[in-house]
């Protein structure tokens, strides 16, 4: 019995030693804040090293420690009972102001109508110009219109992707604005996803649209299966090429890299949905593809951002209940994943009972996270969390002479104890 206990104790020490020597240390929390706002979908570090939050119907500006400096709401008090606003995307513009995109829900006698909007503000969140895209309400009723992607372009204008339709049926519009808010051009892309599309400017002055294909069967109904789709556009929005990636997958986020694009989302692995990361060159051809997750567990990524070491930080979920909708996930735990430049996982953090919308690396090498507790109660558990950057070299094991000597020593003791055990 004494020997058995000794073996168990030794095994425990061995595990501790091995974890100390091999496992990379994940970041630790520096501070957290909660706010009396709706769901926070996006965050960006600002020019003054504070943060700007896309939060419900408002913008929230904080200092470097998450302390609220000001808040600007965009709802109309006279329509408070019939109008719901959600800001999805926020970006600071070159003039120090902000460009934001989202969706407005109007509740009338026949149900809800969702329409996309874009708003430009000054540095203090005061509206300078805005546009609501409600001209197609009657074509798609009950309609779902939303804008989850907006970016300032190299000519100081703006590019926006508007998704319009019913669930996964509908079309996407890419809209180019002049800097003063006047529309320069609009391009429609039919038989594409009715929600969740994004667009970014490419180095050649053109654009890349990330969306998905949808298909109709012989009766004219849409299949549940969708294919992730990239469409390359020239500077005027004309299609140059397109690429699809497998079956039954969706792109949740896309970023430009030095030699192509990085895409993150979710893919169907037959027994469950897996988190999905794919790297392409500038022509949309696949360089590599990675999946993450456990068997019989639905996992996915909401966002991907480049990190200072050439890798990527991914925000998503893990352990969700299987659902037929690839992007309307309401269960599971928040999941923060760090990978290297080739998509190999370096570390991850699971936040039980949380929902993580977005994660970005900060100038100091740490990470800023936004999300909420599950279930969500308005204003009670919407949070912003700052975590430290990982220690230098922590993500990869270092085989130092001392470490290798310790492994050799552990092996000798293990063999000796096994001999004692067999000879008892």
From TrEMBL:
It comes from the Archaea. This is Uncharacterized protein. It comes from Candidatus Methanoperedens nitratireducens. The lineage of its organism: Archaea, Methanobacteriati, Methanobacteriota, Stenosarchaea group, Methanomicrobia.
């Amino acid at each position: 019995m004494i020997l058995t206990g000794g073996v168990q104790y030794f095994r425990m020490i061995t595990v501790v030693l091995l974890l100390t020597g091999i496992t990379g240390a994940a970041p630790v929390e520096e501070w957290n804040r909660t706010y009396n706002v709706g769901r926070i979908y996006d965050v960006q570090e600002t020019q003054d090293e504070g943060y700007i939050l896309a939060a419900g119907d408002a913008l929230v500006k904080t200092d470097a420690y998450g302390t609220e400096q000001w808040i600007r709401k965009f709802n109309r008090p006279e329509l408070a009972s019939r109008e719901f606003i959600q800001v999805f995307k926020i970006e600071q513009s070159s003039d120090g102001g902000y460009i934001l995109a989202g969706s407005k829900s109007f509740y009338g006698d026949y149900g809800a109508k969702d329409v996309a909007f874009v708003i430009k503000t000054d540095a203090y969140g005061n509206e300078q110009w805005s546009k609501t895209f409600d001209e197609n309400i009657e074509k798609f009723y009950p309609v779902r219109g939303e804008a989850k992607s907006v970016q300032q372009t190299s000519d100081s204008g703006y590019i926006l992707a508007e998704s319009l339709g019913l669930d996964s049926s509908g079309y996407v519009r890419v809209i180019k604005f002049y800097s003063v808010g006047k529309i320069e051009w609009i391009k429609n892309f039919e038989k594409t996803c009715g929600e969740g599309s994004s667009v970014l400017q490419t180095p050649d002055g053109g654009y890349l649209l990330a969306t998905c294909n949808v298909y109709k069967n012989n009766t004219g109904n849409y299949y549940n299966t969708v294919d992730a789709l990239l469409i390359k556009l020239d500077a005027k929005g004309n299609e140059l090429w397109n690429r699809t990636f497998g079956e039954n997958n969706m792109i949740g986020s896309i970023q430009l890299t030095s030699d192509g694009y990085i895409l993150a989302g979710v893919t169907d692995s037959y027994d469950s949905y897996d988190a999905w990361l794919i790297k392409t060159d500038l022509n949309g051809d696949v360089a590599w593809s990675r999946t993450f997750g456990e068997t019989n567990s639905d996992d996915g990524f909401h966002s991907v951002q480049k990190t200072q070491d050439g890798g990527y930080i991914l925000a998503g979920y893990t352990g969700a209940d299987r659902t037929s909708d690839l992007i309307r996930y309401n269960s599971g735990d928040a999941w923060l994943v760090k990978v290297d430049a080739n998509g190999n996982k370096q570390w991850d953090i699971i936040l039980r009972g949380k929902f993580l919308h977005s994660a970005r690396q900060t100038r100091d090498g740490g990470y800023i996270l936004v999300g909420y507790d599950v279930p969500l109660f308005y204003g009670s558990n919407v949070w912003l969390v700052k975590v430290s950057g990982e220690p230098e070299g922590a993500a990869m094991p270092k085989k130092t002479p001392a470490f290798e000597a310790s492994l050799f020593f552990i092996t000798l003791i293990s063999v000796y104890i096994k001999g004692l055990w067999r000879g008892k």
